[in-house]
């Protein structure tokens, strides 16, 4: 009898406990409905302290609703700053317990409002923080919005594969908070998803940012990855080929650089700057004697430089920098021929003839250079104020014209171009 009585009393006490727990949840609901949010919090927190009662889906659902209410109340949110995070955890607990059994009936009856409240709460506070310049706080809240939207997508409540707006502003907030590594994560999510526009705004700068970021980190794999993604989205933007050239230029492999230039000038046949830069780099490399001598393929490089520079002028006839470099090429060839005469010291008729032929050939090269230098004068000499690089180009053209006519001993031309040279700073 005593044993049976003890068993009966034990079972009775257990049922009383469950009844008190149910009453506690019901009381929390009533307090929430009455707007007594702090009291409702105390009731639901107390109920969930008992591990035996943490498998009640309804309790977690009202934890979710109560903490949403706290997060929406300015005074209570200041007291419990992590209220929305707690609400999100409660949502997950409720769903884990209820989705297979009652099919989220409570959530459906509320029209999924508590979920939207979490998401909108994170996003709106994030936006307010962002506008106030509190970028670290904005980042945390946009990350909360992303967690929520990701969860919603995983549960099939929304079909959006990525929350583009929250992800964008998480990236921007991180960047403004000087957290570039974090910004790269969120910008990368947008690029990886192939996002090219958000709310009508072109996202090309996101791709440029990623290319620069990984290039500066010397992460070639990711640099090339985002270059490829970017070129697929924005094939006509010149940032991508220019960046490819910069990368190859830094690596120092000239054959690879020339091959890339060939590819780019074929793809952009109407862009005179690529042709000019190609010709200029060929010319500069051919004349680089830092190793003590010219490259073995000097003549080939110079010939190719002339082809590219002439292609530039065919597209943009009034581009003075191309005219200047072409003139310098012919001028240098003339100087080389004159220097070669000194390497033929003999007095035999054939030696005399070789020197004479070289002088004649040098004169012809000077003659070929003159029109290009005169074109620089035509392009820039009649202008007013010039930029520094334009003024430098004009001075170089006048100086070399003066040298040519000095060699030819034509005094009026010497005086004319010398006067032009001396007045560049005054006139321009």
Beta content: under 5%
Radius of gyration, in Å, reads 39 Å
Average pLDDT reading: 92
Distance between the termini: 118 Å
* Poorly predicted residue ranges: 1-21
Q: Based on the structure, what is the oligomeric state of the protein chains? A: single chain
The total beta strand count reads 2
So how many helices?
21
Spatial sequence of strands, sheet with the most strands: 1-2
Assign an overall shape.
rod-shaped
Percent helix range: over 70%
The major pleated sheet works out as: 2 strands, antiparallel
- Judged by helices, strands and strand pairing, the structural class is mainly alpha
Protein model, in words:
This protein has 21 helices and two strands. The longest helix has 33 residues, at 349-381. The protein has 428 residues and is mostly helical. Strands 1-2 form a two-stranded antiparallel ribbon. The chain has helices spanning 2-33, 37-47, 57-71, 74-79, 83-98, 105-109, 113-131, 135-154, 164-176, 180-192, 204-216, 220-233, 239-251, 254-267, 272-286, 298-315, 320-341, 349-381, 388-408, 411-422, 424-427; strands at residues 197-198, 201-202.
């Amino acid at each position: 009898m005593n044993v049976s009585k003890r068993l009966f009393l034990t079972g009775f006490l257990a049922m009383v406990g469950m009844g008190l727990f149910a009453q506690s949840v019901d009381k929390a609901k009533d307090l929430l409905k009455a707007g007594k949010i702090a009291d409702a919090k105390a009731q639901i927190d107390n109920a969930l302290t008992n591990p035996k009662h943490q498998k009640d889906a309804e309790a977690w659902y009202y934890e979710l609703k109560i903490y949403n209410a706290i997060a929406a109340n300015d005074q209570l949110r200041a007291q419990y700053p992590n209220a929305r995070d707690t609400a999100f955890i409660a949502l997950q607990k409720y769903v884990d317990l209820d989705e297979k059994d009652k099919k989220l009936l409570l959530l459906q009856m509320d029209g999924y409002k508590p979920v939207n409240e979490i998401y909108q709460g994170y996003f709106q506070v994030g936006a307010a923080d962002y506008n106030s310049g509190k970028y670290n706080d904005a980042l945390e809240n946009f990350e909360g919005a992303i967690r929520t939207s990701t969860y919603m997508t995983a549960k099939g409540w929304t079909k959006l594969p990525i929350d583009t707006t929250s992800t964008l502003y998480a990236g921007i907030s991180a960047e403004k908070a000087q957290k570039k590594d974090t910004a790269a994560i969120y910008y990368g999510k947008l690029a990886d998803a192939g996002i090219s526009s958000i709310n009508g705004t072109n996202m090309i700068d996101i791709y440029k940012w990623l290319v620069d970021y990984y290039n500066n980190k010397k992460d070639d794999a990711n640099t090339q990855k985002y270059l490829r993604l970017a070129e697929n989205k924005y094939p006509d933007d010149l940032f991508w080929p220019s960046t490819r050239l910069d990368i190859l230029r830094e690596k120092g492999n000239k054959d690879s650089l020339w091959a890339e230039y060939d590819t780019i000038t074929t793809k952009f046949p109407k862009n005179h700057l690529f042709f000019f830069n190609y010709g200029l780099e060929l010319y500069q490399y051919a004349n680089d004697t830092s190793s003590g001598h010219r490259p073995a393929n000097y003549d080939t490089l110079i010939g190719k430089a002339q082809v590219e520079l002439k292609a530039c002028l065919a597209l943009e006839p009034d581009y003075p920098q191309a005219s200047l470099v072409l003139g310098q090429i012919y001028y240098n060839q003339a100087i080389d021929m004159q220097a070669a005469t000194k390497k033929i010291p003999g007095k035999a008729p054939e030696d005399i003839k070789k020197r004479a032929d070289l002088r004649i050939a040098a004169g012809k090269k000077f003659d070929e250079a003159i029109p290009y230098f005169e074109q620089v004068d035509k392009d820039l000499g009649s202008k007013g104020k010039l930029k520094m690089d334009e003024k430098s180009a004009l001075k170089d053209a006048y100086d070399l014209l003066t040298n040519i006519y000095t060699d030819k001993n034509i005094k009026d031309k010497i005086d004319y171009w010398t006067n032009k040279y001396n007045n560049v700073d005054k006139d321009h």
